[in-house]
Records
---
Amino acid sequence: MEKILVIGAGGQLGSELTAALCDQFGNEAVIASDLHEGSASKFDYCRFEQLDVMDIDRLKALVKNEGITQIYHLAAVLSAVGEKKPLFAWQLNMNSLLSILEIAREYKLDKVYWPSSIAVFGPNTPKTNTPQFCVKEPITVYGISKQAGERWCQYYFEKYGVDVRSLRYPGLIGYKSLPGGGTTDYAVDIFHKALAGETFECFLDENSYLPMMYMADAIKATLDIMNAPKERVKIRSSYNLAAMSFSPKELYEAIKSELSEFSISYKPDFRQEIADSWPDSVDDSHARSDWGWKHQFGIKEMTRNILVNLPNFQF
Ligand code: AKB
């Protein structure tokens, strides 16, 4: 029987992924953990443990005592916040991954999931349909940590047989929790302002194209790669993953076609340089052919889905 530990469960991805894992494996099989004690209130359906991922002794004890077989390691400092606290971002992002890979090796875990990001790419990467294998010279600490993390994942797979699987997420857009500290977060914030009847001030330029994905698709991709037979997961650094690409102006227009009064202004800040260094769109054909990845949501379907569901959601 699987016993799954989700680290960083209180975050934007973790809140929804934990619920999906409980649906698949049963509530008893999942332990949600987060640094923030306050996240406990999100998990009335499964066990919650307050956990600092940097506390390796506690992490080891939890894995050993609970008979953990899989870890989903989602805790990270994202791109924008990472630029404010570069050394902290490096320490947290790298040391936590290394601890978990070591624990996976020592305790022979069945599987580990660790997310990478489009942040591994940089200004010298081909901008459109960015290939799986190409130049990567990330300009953010977050991107550097994800790039190095990808190498460590491949290393642990090849040297020690650790079954670690990873996806390079585009910007993730969900309505069930707020994102924290990313460059793509404008695409979540905009919906909250639109529904509050306020003008949205966008921190990116109107024509900044970025790869994006609706959370339902991100959850599906994560479960798909983790449920795929081992031999079909051929890339052990991290897979390119795509669904849609749009600019702030295009997202604004999609929302405005549903809420005609909505208005926007543009005031690019330091996050513009980060966005400019990332791809406009990504080629995810390896994920599609290796383990059958297929997205469902485009910008229209996503916008309708969020505008229908967000007003009824209690934070
Ligand atoms: C960020 O903007 O930092 C993240 C990401 C693309 O990984 N959403």
---
Amino acid sequence: PQVLVINGPNLNLLGSREPGHYGVRSLEDISARITTLAGELGADVDIFQSNAEHELVGRVQAARGRADFIIINPAAFTHTSVALRDALLAVDIPFIELHLSNVHAREEFRAHSYFSDIAVGVISGLGAVGYELALRAAHDHLSRN
Ligand code: DQA
């Protein structure tokens, strides 16, 4: 199975960006870990990051008919992007919404997501290990559906 991992704006700065919220592991480190885990699970992961909404929308659109599952950390677009929500609805690929920090324990504006009600599930507040948990959950979902 093909799993697409999409990371939104400012996640390229992981490791140095507000480590109290987002931890000390870089996106490269997280990516290496989930690539290894994917190999163990017999899955293929394709990992993408962009700061630009149109590139994220484009990547979701391009996944139609190619990816079996999407793991997405929409970052700040979680709270703003109807366009990214609509792209996920359009391609009809099951997805998990993922956040490193607990978005419910922070500013009130982070509690609302444009994705949670259409996601298979949501992981928030477990740090970088959330990516590994999401991949395991994706694998489990695909083996059942
Ligand atoms: C985030 C939480 C968002 O509120 C924030 O804008 C991010 C990262 C997280 O992974 O905890 O950029 O998605």
